[in-house]
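Objective 1.3, modelling of assemblies. Example input:
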Amino acid sequence: MKRFKNAFKILSLSFLLIFACWEVVWATEVLIGQVLPLSGGAAPQGTQIKTGAEIAVEEINAEGGIKSLGGAKIKLIFGDSKSTPDGGAAETERLCTREKVSLILGAFQSGVTFPATEVAERYKTPWIVNVAVKDEITERGFKYVFRDFNKASYDILEMIKAVELFAKETGKKPKTFALMYEGTDWGRSSAQFVKKFYPEKGYKMVLEESYAPGIADFTPQILKIKAAKPDMLIVALYTPEHVLFSKQQMEQKLYLPYGLWSVGAGSEDPTFYKAVPIKAVEFMFVQDDWDVNAPQRPWFPSLDQKTKAKLGYGLNSYVACGYGTMYLVKDVLERAASTDRDKIRDAIAATDITPQTCGRIERKVDGKTYCPALVRGITRIKFDEQGQNTFSHGMITQNQKGVKIPFWPVEARPAGAKLVWPIPPWDKR
Amino acid sequence: MSAELLLSASVMGLLLGGLYASVAIGLSLIFGIIRVINFAHGGFLMMAMYASFWLWYFFQINPYLSIIVVVPLFFFFGYIVQNTLIKPMFVRERALVVEPLGVLLLMAGFDLVLANLALLFFKSDYRAIVSPIASATISLEFIELNVPRFIVLVLSFIITGGLTWLMNYTEIGVAIRAVGQNREAAALCGINVYKIYNITFGLGTAAVALAGAAMVPFYYVNPSMGLPLGVKSFIVVVLGGLGSIPGALLGGLILGIIESITAQFVTSTSAVIFSFLLFIIVLFVRPKGLMGIIEA
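Predicted structure (tokens):
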């Protein structure tokens, strides 16, 4: 009897071994983890990134998977951070240890990404940051963390460049600014650079204000801003607070001669524009993380339609972010030709995608080729020694009659676009 | 700090306080009578706001008009929740304790269920009514008064007045108070305790539904919106006095005014410290809250 038991043990063990080898040699699936806020405050953006990633994976798998891995399919495993740091860390732990993913993407919010990447680094799991901009995420000497998006400092520098450009073009220059931001990592990180860069260029800060998430009323803050009389107001707000603030500043007729400048997040969310009257966002400047002129590109209609079918509204920056990064992942996997975490890490570090070197991931729509990893409007993905893509950039747009018109960089400005600067008072709109 | 600014901040604080109070009154009522801390209170608010929002979205029904539908609907919803979910736990733990702890966990779980159902069916998008009534304002001397927010303030007084009248001058109100004071004695007098619980829970839910419908014009709706307002409600209820309906109104107004005025001196993230400081002081000096009848 005992002999039987031993034989059984050996037999089952060898089966296990064979299966394990099978998995390694004939990888039929590459597991990619993605930690995103699918519930809680930042859920709309999390869902948009998820949708973009899903569209890309459907395309990749339908078009033959990862060729260097014998046509292996990409399988996405999502972790819901619930928009909280501990939720993000717990899901990262699960993806690293239980799901054994080869690579993780995420996690949209800086406050979640900062601790979660620390967990991934501990498990030596490569992580490509989706959107979270806090500079320090890639400045801790981590080996496995990469970001193909802007840093917060890039966002702020773009806004300053736009202000300087507008001042030069019109001869009218704002002198003072006020700053209001949400009190977690993203807002604080953005504020840190606003406070550093704007005074260097001669702008004076007259008010700094932060708030805790879940705030139900912005009138106390608006009263304060009104009393400080800034020329412009810079805000970093997530969607719910952006809805409340935009409506209330309209009701209170908060007048900012050189405009309301939004660093993004809430103001890049299409659901935000559905929830506020057009008048509330008229003339607002937005640091947009993607190519606002994309609707003129040949690939736009097909991607826009796929987004509409899944979300009920069209392509936006975050869907494009999720989509683009997934094609960066494809490029990485083709070069790594392995599901091994360290080989993937080295392949990410060696990335250099430009429209000319896009051969591995190029797609065709209506006979025209495009580079899907660059749909966001950037021209190159190449990481510096810290893991940051130094070629990432965005655009500065102004809302005019419910449409976003890019005014910075000048090359992106459509013919005939007219900047409103300074902005007319409320009773003259 | 000019006097004008201080006055404006106080008025705005009063409006914010009205919002906190109107949401918290239902919670206070349920706690006072059934001795159950309803952790699904924020979830109920969220559901009521969705109900009112969809009525506007699909049938263009004015949110204030939707009150006629939403309030009775949520009375029955609360009635059924108490009758089918909470009552069995009371019956099971009847012999052991007066305040079954299990109900606390049950309602916390029910809140998660509600939030996730909303996430599943309504998606995570932030939605809001875009219509002129939402942004109507009255120009006062220094400030613009948002009409829908003012209506909520008025409503908080109406709900308080209405419930106080009901408790003191109707037979059902007397029965409710009797059950709240002593369950066994009330049962001995021939009061159907569980039916009273059902009605009380229904009333509490209807009160929060009323507040929710009136909030729709100026707020946003989202599956996870219940939590922050739910947490504020607990603070309001403990501050004002557990189980006291006028206490909830007072607690809400005080919290709103403090938040608004302290925000004029420090950043809003730091202003939160002051509301919690007040909370701690009240708990130390008067553990049953400002107008409380039950020890916390």
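Residues 3-34 of chain B form the longest helix (32 residues).
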